[in-house]
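hey
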């Protein structure tokens, strides 16, 4: 190999690596914490372009394509998951190590995608290049003309080359998008699963486009930006070749991509316009802003309980004072005024709000104190520690407790409703492969004991103020796992998703914002509203369209935030209303789950098999 060729190959590899890293960085800009949503539609041409740099002179092998995809994936996850660099219980070394290892693992899915695309969805530049005219009439040099079907037919062709090219691009874009959706779905359950930051999360601010999640789920929505971005890249390549050959050609493939996005948009417009009969449930959601040290210190538990009760009492007093001032102002001006109901149907506090076990006198007293403040007809929900006392097989759970209205738990011996967490967080609530000595030695101190796994996904039935409905309890990050949440859906029943969580493990606000973006999609997928009580944010009410705004009361935002609306990391109590659809609709996603992702996986698998058979047949000739 000559020095010139070697230098050219080295430069091509370096350029591919730089562009791949840039692609991952551009993608990260679309996600919560930065929220430049437009970049979601622009990063794919960079990644596919990186795979094509120097391809004619030096065709990248499978590992080369994997490396390009891996670099893009690492840049994306390393940037978007930057909040993992400071985990309260792990310390700086383990936090940074976990950040690097998780980013490296998740980047492998980008690498596998790149290999699949190279194998079954690689755009053939020969089909993108305009063919020479066979007509005696040639265009003037430097003056492009438009190909036509009539011209192609006159030259003896059965199909215009521009149509062949467009169909080829559509085929490649479909397979590329299908491969992405399938891999994202696999990532959601393999090795306990990590559903965080799928591509659809980059669209969370576009309320109209994301409504189609009730058909295909959040994973399925990722098809849209990949398909559009792939077609956009091919279009840019074709335009460049057409200019260099002085010939314009129609691009129906780009029209198809635009129509797909437009169809998704129109579906969203229709869903947002539907008015449904609802049951209003008045809620109070607390955000205490306790530090992790305060939450996990049994010695200060009574002090923290008193602070929470005081915070709630002050919030109720401020609410009553605002009502009084509104009434006085209305009387002075003679205007009519309609105030919200002062009653509270449901009071929700965060996960493991205090370090007491569920069946303890302290927990019952704390719940009773809360009910005394908000009213005896209010159901109280919060996270706590559940235990099964059995000398032969003791168990410990991360638990949601529901103290129903009208019951004196201290004196009558009744037990609250209880839900034990099913989806445990690895390296947080249990240590995978603890039996391997070096793993326990390395991170065992950060995870000293494992929680047991809950078994039930039955909703909890409550009735307050004459309203009967079901609670679908979701602890911590369970609201990020779509295939778990859909198990709570019951046809024809008014249901409310209830998420109690504590994002105080992570100091960076991007963690809470990304977690909340995941929750939005659960509401849309299942058409069920959600109330979230988070220790450090985001505490909010999300309706069945994924919106924080109360569209039935003038569009008031239902979220704990500072006065300017720029931060959700403030203590507070949110009084608002969740509207539960009476019909208990079962969406396509609720009924069939990730059917679209599985179909995409089947399409990719069949394509790989057919391509392999074709390769064997070609080699035997």
């Amino acid at each position: 190999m000559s020095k010139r060729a070697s230098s050219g190959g080295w430069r091509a590899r370096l350029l591919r690596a730089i562009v791949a890293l840039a692609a991952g960085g551009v993608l990260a800009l679309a996600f919560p914490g930065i929220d430049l949503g437009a970049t979601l539609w622009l990063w794919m041409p960079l990644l596919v372009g990186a795979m094509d740099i120097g391809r004619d002179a030096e065709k990248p092998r499978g590992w080369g394509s994997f490396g390009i995809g891996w670099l893009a994936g690492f840049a994306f996850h390393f940037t978007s998951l930057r909040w993992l660099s400071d985990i309260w219980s792990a310390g700086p070394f383990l936090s940074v190590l976990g950040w690097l290892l998780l980013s490296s693992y998740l980047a492998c899915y980008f690498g596998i995608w790149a290999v699949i695309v190279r194998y079954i969805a690689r755009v053939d530049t020969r089909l993108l290049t305009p063919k020479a005219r066979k007509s005696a009439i040639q265009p003037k040099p430097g003056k492009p003309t438009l190909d036509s079907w009539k011209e192609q037919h006159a030259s003896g062709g059965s199909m215009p080359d521009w149509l062949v090219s467009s169909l080829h691009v559509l085929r490649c874009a479909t397979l590329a998008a299908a491969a992405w959706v399938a891999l994202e779905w696999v990532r959601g359950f393999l090795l306990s699963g990590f559903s965080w930051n799928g591509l659809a999360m980059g669209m969370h601010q576009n309320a109209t486009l994301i409504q189609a999640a009730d058909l295909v789920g959040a994973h399925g929505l990722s098809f849209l930006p990949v398909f559009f971005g792939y077609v956009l890249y091919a279009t840019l390549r074709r335009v460049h070749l057409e200019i260099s050959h002085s010939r314009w050609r129609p691009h129906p493939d780009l029209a198809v991509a635009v129509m797909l996005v437009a169809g998704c948009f129109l579906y969203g417009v229709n869903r947002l316009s539907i008015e449904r009969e609802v049951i209003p449930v008045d809620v109070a959601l607390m955000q205490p802003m306790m530090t992790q040290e305060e939450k996990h210190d049994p010695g200060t538990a009574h002090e923290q309980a008193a602070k929470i009760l005081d915070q709630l009492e002050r919030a109720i007093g401020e609410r009553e004072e605002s009502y009084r001032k509104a009434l006085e102002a209305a009387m002075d001006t003679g205007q009519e005024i309609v105030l919200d109901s002062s009653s509270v149907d449901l009071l929700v506090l965060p996960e493991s709000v205090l370090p007491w076990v569920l069946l303890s006198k302290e927990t019952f007293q704390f719940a009773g104190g809360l009910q005394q403040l908000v009213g005896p007809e209010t159901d109280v929900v919060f996270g706590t520690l559940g235990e099964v006392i059995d000398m032969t097989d003791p168990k410990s759970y991360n638990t949601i407790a529901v103290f129903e209205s009208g019951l004196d738990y201290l004196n009558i011996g009744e037990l609250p409703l209880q839900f034990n967490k099913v989806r445990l967080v690895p390296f947080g609530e249990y240590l995978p492969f603890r039996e391997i000595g070096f793993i326990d030695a390395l991170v065992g101190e950060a995870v000293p004991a494992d929680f047991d796994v809950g078994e039930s996904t039955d909703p909890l039935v409550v009735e307050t103020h004459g309203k009967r409905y079901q609670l679908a309890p979701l602890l911590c990050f369970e609201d990020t796992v779509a295939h778990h949440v859909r198990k709570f859906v019951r046809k024809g029943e008014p249901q409310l998703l209830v998420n109690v969580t504590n994002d105080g493990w992570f100091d960076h606000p991007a963690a809470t914002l990304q977690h909340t973006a995941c929750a939005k999609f659960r509401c849309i997928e299942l058409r069920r509203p959600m109330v979230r009580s988070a220790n450090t944010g985001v505490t909010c009410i999300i309706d069945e369209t994924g919106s924080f705004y109360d569209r039935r009361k003038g569009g008031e935002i239902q979220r704990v935030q500072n006065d300017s609306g720029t931060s959700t990391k403030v203590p507070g109590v949110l009084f608002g209303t969740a509207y539960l659809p009476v019909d208990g609709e079962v969406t396509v996603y609720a009924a069939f789950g990730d059917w679209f992702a599985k179909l995409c996986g089947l399409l990719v698998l069949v394509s790989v098999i057919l391509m392999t058979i074709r390769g064997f047949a070609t080699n035997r000739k």
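Residues 1-120 form one domain. The chain has 19 helices and 15 strands.
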